[in-house]
Amino acid sequence: MRKFKENILKILLYLSAIITVGILVFIIGFIFIKGYKLINLNYLFGDYKPSGGGGIKPFIISTLYTVGLSLLIATPIGVLSAVYLQEYAKQGKLVRVIRYSTEALAGIPSIVYGLFGAAFFVSALKFGYSLLAGSLTLAIIILPVIIRTTEESLKVVPPSYREASLGLGATRFQTLYKVILPSAIPGILSGVILSMGRVIGESAALFLTAGTVYKIPTSIMSSGRTLTVHAFLETKEKGDIASAAAAGIVLIVMIFILNLLAKFVSKKFNKANY
User: Fold this and answer.
1) pTM for the complete prediction?
2) What is the C-alpha to C-alpha distance for residues 139 and 72, in angstroms, rounded to an integer?
3) Under a CB-based contact definition with an 8 Å cutoff, are residues 176 and 82 in contact?
4) CA-to-CA distance for 250 and 257, rounded, in angstroms?
5) Which residue ranges form the domains of the chain, and what is each CATH number?
6) What are the tens digits of pLDDT across the range 72-108?
7) Over the stretch 197-249, which tens digit does the pLDDT of each residue have?
């Protein structure tokens, strides 16, 4: 009977894996089939033409701007917040409330963040529809992910590392800076990778804060249209599924390349620590 249950469990596990991979292959395959014909050098590096036949260079640049800015803002704040909560704060009711709040923030729909960004960054601070307003909004969206993943990474650092460092005469800050954080870097980078995917795939919040201008942004105060917003507009306004699918292919490739770079850096840190 026990062996029968184990076999049933194995079948369910294999079936779940096959279904998951099958859905992923179907989605990616559908996007590639619909959009690969439009991919060429002119499409990737040409300026957008509303009349058709242009490229998506302005949207790639806007996407890279928002990814870089939002991560530049959110990563230091998120990591330092997690370090305080895990290493310095007294574990009590206040810390539990803060942790619960960050988890609750992670579950809020992005459109709510977009409305906040439009009211606060765009109107109150008078940033207008700009990449800065969009990036600040995205930074708030990804903060909970970075905080939680960093906290979990710090938790799994063996206590013996701390004890050995302190026993050798290092200060608490030196222990944190030279022992704990380097050991937790791979986990922290995992959180950054997850956040990167969230930023690249975001559209609702950016629609309300960064705008939809199709020109190349000249600064962070310029309005810009990211690839996801462009794909949405192409589908909604023109009904052009092929163009939206082509933008989706570029997005998939961008995420793949950025993930590879992040994993490469993570491996380098791992080798440096051992």
Assistant:
1) 0.84
2) 9
3) no
4) 11
5) 58-273 (1.10.3720.10)
6) 999 999 999 888 888 887 777 877 888 888 888 888 8
7) 888 888 888 988 998 888 888 888 988 888 888 888 888 777 778 888 888 88
